[in-house]
Write a structure and sequence with these properties.
It is a single chain. The chain has about 210 residues and is of the alpha/beta class. It has a single domain, classed as Rossmann fold. About 25% of the residues lie in helices and about 20% in strands. The protein has five helices and twelve strands. Strand 11 and strand 12 form a beta hairpin. Helix 3 runs parallel beside helix 4. The longest helix is centred in the N-terminal third of the chain and has 17 residues. It is globular. The mean pLDDT is about 95. Bound molecules: adenosine-5'-diphosphate and magnesium ion. The site of adenosine-5'-diphosphate (ADP) has 12 residues, from helix 5. Magnesium ion binds next to loops.
Length: about 210
């Protein structure tokens, strides 16, 4: 078999990842408004019933985009509990990295270049990565080994690679049940997740 034929039979990892992204993004975009709402409520209940939140004060979440699991009911519950909530913001000077910025009820948001609402990264609102107790990350697809496929920008891979291995910070993926796949084709730079929560299941790979 020639290399060209082999390539047409076995697409490379990059195109496998692209195909998987597009399939799973469509799948989650097709969830009805009612299903999204139920998923968001179930997620908040599941997280609050676990022992994840109690020891942490500084918690990073994301605002849902592209059919992602809606975190807003969870964010509201965390505010009620007096927790400090942070959102990711595209780093204004270092391309490809995220900063985490305090998000309160009255914080103004404006859309970034992807149309995702962000708080303004004022210096006094930033939290150093290593001071976060929990980072909840969005994802496109995951598998039962904790491998994570994102939207393709590598923002979380780059940013999380700066966490020291001994960091106490828990990084937890959030996703709809329908985003689980048999296997995510991995790349060397991908940072796997040790915990993933869906509205139906808590995966703990530690
Ligand atoms: N730690 C890193 N340092 C530099 N570039 C990185 C790092 N992590 C990921 N990247 C780059 O980001 C790009 C997208 O990564 P990928 O894992 O495909 O995206 P995603 O995690 O969003 O699915 C790749 O070109 C990759 O080389
Ligand atoms: Mg990646």
């Amino acid at each position: 078999m020639t290399t060209a034929t082999l390539n047409s039979v076995l697409p490379d990892t990059t195109s496998q990842r692209q195909q998987l992204r597009s399939l799973i993004r469509k799948r989650r975009q097709q969830l009805s408004a009612g299903a999204q709402q139920q998923a968001a409520t179930d997620l908040a209940a599941k997280v609050l019933a676990s022992d994840i939140i109690a020891p942490g004060q500084h918690i990073a979440l994301y605002l849902a985009n592209d059919g992602e699991l809606d975190t807003y009911p969870l964010i509201q519950a965390l505010w009620q509990l007096g927790k400090s909530v942070y959102l990711p913001v595209l780093h204004p000077f270092v391309a490809g990295y995220l900063l985490f910025v305090r998000y309160d009820k009255d914080t103004l948001l404006s859309p970034n270049k992807f149309g995702i609402p962000e708080p303004f990264p004022a210096c006094h609102r930033l939290i150093p990565l290593q001071q976060l107790d929990i980072i909840f990350t969005p994802l496109v697809a995951f598998d039962a080994a904790g491998n994570r496929l994102g939207m393709g920008g590598g923002f979380y891979d780059r940013t999380l690679s700066q966490l020291p291995p001994e960091s106490h910070c828990q990084v937890i993926g959030l996703a709809h049940n329908c985003q689980q796949v048999d296997a995510v084709p991995g790349e060397a730079w991908d940072i796997p997740l040790k915990q993933i929560i869906t509205p139906g299941k808590y995966f703990d790979f530690r």
